[in-house]
């Protein structure tokens, strides 16, 4: 039986699921990292206290042993939790092959329009094309990253806003830049249609540390890293210019 192509709604659901999967694993990694430092400190201080306590005080020694055991169990639990849940995303699968860049860009913009932009009345426009370029990279993953960038920009835009996808190609790299005017209020407006879950939208409104991206964009970061490229997100500031940039080497390394 011949396979059928996914419908637009099925593709949107798949893209949202991929974004949520990588965001979940990013959050788990952050939580694991943030918890390890205090747990390690507790473990170290327990040994310091052990040397200070009278060896004849059996109750105190048992209490310290219990503290160390509890910490070790918590660390093991973190390792098991993160290792198990990240099994799907630990190694990002890239099927690298040459593909026409303009075709992918057009398809991705159409997907983003159908997914949310049309419902919001947001205008998506491609600038810098057609490039006529061929990119040697993972077509599916690049498309997912571009779609997520456009979807995020749409989520953080007022109805009727304009978003541009600038595409530029040099001898060494292809660069994709999404530009728009940030509207953080739109992320929390439940009267508007949305793609991302409430948690993801709420976190995106928080002030990001330097060099950090909203968690929902974790897939974009992983796609960039898998290709030896880079991903950057300008912090969202209400009413100011916002941008997302994906830079991918022009050929495999």
> Can you say what the CATH homologous superfamily of the largest domain is?
Histidine kinase-like ATPase, C-terminal domain
Give the helix proportion (percent range).
Answer: 40-55%
Which radius of gyration do the C-alpha atoms yield? 23 Å
What is the CATH architecture assignment of the largest domain? 2-Layer Sandwich
| CATH class wording of the largest domain | Alpha Beta
Based on secondary structure, the structural category is alpha+beta
Shape: elongated
Helix count?
7
Largest sheet: 5 strands, mixed
- Estimate the strand proportion: 15-25%
Number of domains: 2
Q: Uncertain runs with pLDDT below 50, 5 residues or more?
A: none
Q: What is the tally of beta strands?
A: 7
As for the CATH topology of the largest domain, it is Heat Shock Protein 90
Termini separation: 38 Å
Mean pLDDT: 87
- Strand order within the widest sheet? 2-4-5-7-6
Q: Spell out the helices and strands N to C.
A: HHEHEEHEEHHHEE
How does the SSE layout of this entry go?
Layout: H1 8-52, H2 58-85, E1 96-100, H3 101-120, E2 123-127, E3 134-138, H4 139-155, E4 162-169, E5 173-181, H5 184-188, H6 198-205, H7 218-226, E6 230-233, E7 241-249
Parallel strand pairs: 2-4
Antiparallel strand pairs: 1-3, 4-5, 5-7, 6-7
Helix pairs in contact: 1-2, 1-3, 3-4, 4-7
Domain Histidine kinase: 30-252
GO molecular function: phosphorelay sensor kinase activity
Protein name: histidine kinase
Please characterize this protein's 3D structure:
It is a single chain. The chain has a 5-stranded mixed β-sheet with strand order 2-4-5-7-6. A two-stranded antiparallel sheet has the order 1-3. The protein has about 250 residues and is an alpha+beta fold. Helix 1 runs antiparallel to helix 2, helix 3 (about 100-120) packs parallel to helix 4 and helix 4 runs antiparallel to helix 7 (about 220-225). The chain folds into 2 domains: about 10-90; about 95-250, Heat Shock Protein 90 (2-Layer Sandwich), CATH 3.30.565.10. The two termini are about 40 Å apart. The chain is built from 7 helices and 7 strands; from the N terminus they run H-H-E-H-E-E-H-E-E-H-H-H-E-E. About 30% of the residues are buried. The longest helix is centred in the first third of the chain and has 45 residues, at about 10-50.
């Amino acid at each position: 039986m011949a396979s059928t192509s996914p419908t637009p709604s099925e593709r949107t659901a798949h893209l949202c699921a991929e974004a949520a999967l990588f965001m979940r694993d990013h959050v788990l990694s952050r939580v694991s990292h943030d918890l390890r430092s205090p747990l390690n400190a507790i473990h170290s201080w327990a040994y310091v206290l052990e040397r200070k306590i009278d060896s004849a005080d059996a109750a105190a020694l048992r209490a310290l042993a219990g503290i160390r055991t509890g910490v070790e169990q918590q660390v093991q639990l973190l390792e098991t939790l993160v290792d198990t849940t990240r099994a799907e995303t630990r190694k990002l699968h890239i099927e690298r092959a040459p593909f026409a860049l303009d075709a992918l860009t057009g398809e991705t913009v159409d997907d983003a329009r159908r997914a949310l932009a049309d419902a919001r009345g947001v205008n998506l426009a491609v600038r810098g094309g057609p490039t006529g370029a061929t990119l040697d990279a993972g077509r599916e993953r690049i498309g997912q990253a571009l779609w997520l960038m456009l979807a995020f920009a749409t989520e953080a835009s007022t109805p009727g806003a304009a978003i541009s996808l600038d595409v530029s190609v040099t001898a060494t790299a292809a660069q994709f830049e999404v530009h728009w005017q940030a509207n953080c209020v739109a992320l929390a407006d439940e009267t508007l249609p949305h793609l991302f879950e409430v948690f993801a939208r709420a976190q995106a409104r928080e002030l990001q540390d330097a060099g950090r991206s909203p968690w929902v964009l974790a897939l974009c970061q992983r796609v960039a890293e898998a290709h030896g490229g880079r991903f950057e997100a300008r912090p969202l500031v209400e009413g100011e210019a916002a941008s997302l940039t994906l830079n991918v080497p022009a050929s495999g390394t």
